[in-house]
Fold these 2 entries.
Entry 1:
Amino acid sequence: MTFVNVGTLGAAPGKRDELVELWDSAEAHRASLALSQVQDAIARARPLLDGTFGGHRFTVVGSPLRD
């Protein structure tokens, strides 16, 4: 299965694809936040966001975003 953290990060115009990421589980998502490369990615993403946040979490059986 695939863990999905569906957020409503408001992307700056033309920057949506630079923000998309997938995780295998909620634990993998949580653990990823401690990685230095993820912290760096978050810092780089901040200027691409418009400050609008929200979302939902759920587990899906399949995903068109995964090969």
Entry 2:
Amino acid sequence: MSSRVRVIGAGLAGSEAAWQCARRGVAVELCEMRPMRSTPAHQTGDFAELVCSNSLKSESENTAPWLLKEELRRAGSLLIEIARQCAVPAGHALAVDRVTFAKKVTEAISREPMIAVRREEVMRISEDQITIVATGPLTSDGLSEEIGRLSGSTRLYFYDSISPIVEAESIDMAKVYLAARYDKGTADYINCPMSQEEYDRFYDALISAQSVEERDWEKLNYFESCLPIEEIARRGRDTLRFGPMKPVGLKDPRTGRPPYAVVQLRQENLRADSYNLVGFQNHLKFGEQARVLQLIPGLENARFLRYGQIHRNTYINAPTLLRETLQMKEHPRVLFAGQICGVEGYVESIATGLMAGVHATALSMGAEPVAPQRATALGSLVHYITHADANRFQPANITFDLLPALEQKIRDRQVRHRRQCELALREFESWLEKVGVVQAVR
């Protein structure tokens, strides 16, 4: 006999966790407070709504993001399967029509008979019930306080950002060109080239633009890999040219040379009627955003469907609180998944949701959860968040730096990464044999 599993939060991690439990024959109560109560970043009540980028990162074989997605595919991830159904052109990356993606996830979860959806805010966590907390970076204040009670620690915050989106018809296509950075994948990105004079004018306007005022209780603590563009710019005049505006591999077909700097736009949906400014998350007032961003060649008359924003992200100190199975050390029937457990990124959130669902299923059957091997991408990701320096802990994306070094030293990076992927997938297959595989979509 199995016990009902409660999943709090129907974002990426919660949706995947609930589906994994249900497909293994375990009844699930899935609680989601939206749309009864929304957040500063969400716009709908749909499950798995993507609020920042629409990209699930690289699909290039033998890269770290590809490896994690490949492990999820082999494990029967519902959300990775749906993401590929909703893919939009994005060069070598997997990007999705975020509206279609969220609707398909909502439909798949809602029609699953083993999942009972409760549209309500949860304020209390029972230590005795098998519970997966997957409330994401925008966990409500009430539940955050409850998590603080369980963990015996204060809440932790960092600040994340959202990139602007422009209407496709408002882009001056005579001033831009299509290409993919590093010539990887197909030429699916719109590129807005800048001369040195245009870049200097844009840079000066950006660093002098007025930011949204910080609230009294806020202490901005940005995640390093998702800094607002104005924060990057303040680190030096050329930092943008070596960051989100680097022109490497982006020759302008009209000149045959790379521009001095470039702004890339990625298709936002299947209709191709909107594009987001890649890496242009910011904390500027909306009027200032329009003034500064319209200095970009091709965007002089841009109509903005969404401006950049900053929102609060909440996460726990996982090294002090969690086992490698995502169970709380002090309350092993309570698991955490998604960004709140200390991972950063869409695929990473899906991955920890899948893992939490597998482990919650084991607990419900009276079995002992088994963590993935360290050599796997999923195992290395969870090893990091549970073994990092607790005093300096910051959320992490999947990278090869998290995986253990090979016994044999290989200087060629491409060969080394290929060997790491081969080893990871062999180890992952052995983990799947222990926990069982469930096909993604019937």
